[in-house]
Design a protein that fits this description.
Number of domains: 2
Length: about 180
């Protein structure tokens, strides 16, 4: 049993998607069974979750569902038009996080103490990364540049500082041309 769930909410192209903020609380309760503890029927043992095209209309339902996934190890979020801010709080377990092609994303807050792999492709947004002590592999692809008009180098410095222990860091060409090369 792979314990994998794919949820795709694509309905075709939304011309003007309603913007929303999304707060996901993952692994909020201790899933370890005790001799007297029996999992509730609403607890799902999903290890991998792929979410595509979550929108303003579906994000609360998805958040409620995801809060019951106490064994989640891998989360992928893609093509969420209208997603303006994303906050992921994880008490434990989440090891792989991928966020791709969410064109309106302006801020991303992640607190994940077991995260070992992080992939991000989209506009350079405001990042707050906490608890990434075990992060070994990261990919940052901001090929379309910053998602806001006033780009300041210290924002990128804070992002790299949060990833200072990463063993493998993959950066796109835009980062090298716009940020690193002027300093060389």
């Amino acid at each position: 049993l792979k314990r994998k769930l794919l949820l795709d909410f694509s309905l075709g192209k939304q011309e003007f998607p309603r913007q929303f903020g999304w707060h996901l609380v993952l692994n909020s309760r201790d899933p370890s069974p005790s001799p007297t503890h029996h999992p509730s029927p609403s607890t799902f043992f999903i290890k991998t979750l792929n979410l595509t095209s979550v929108s303003y209309l579906t994000n609360q339902t998805v958040s409620s569902l995801v809060s019951n996934f106490h064994s989640l190890e891998s989360l992928t979020i893609t093509k969420c038009n209208g997603l303006r801010s994303l906050r992921i709080d994880d008490v434990s377990n989440l090891q792989n996080l991928t966020i791709l092609d969410c064109p309106q994303l302006k801020s991303l807050y992640i607190e994940a103490y077991e995260l070992t792999s992080f992939r991000y492709r989209g506009l350079l947004c405001w990042f707050s990364l906490r608890g990434l002590h075990f992060l070994a592999d990261a990919m940052l692809d901001f090929r379309e540049g910053p998602g806001y008009s006033r780009f300041e180098y210290q924002h990128f410095d804070l992002l790299l500082l949060a990833m200072r222990n990463v063993k493998i860091l993959t950066l796109c060409r835009w980062i090298f041309e716009a940020i690193i090369s002027p300093w060389l």
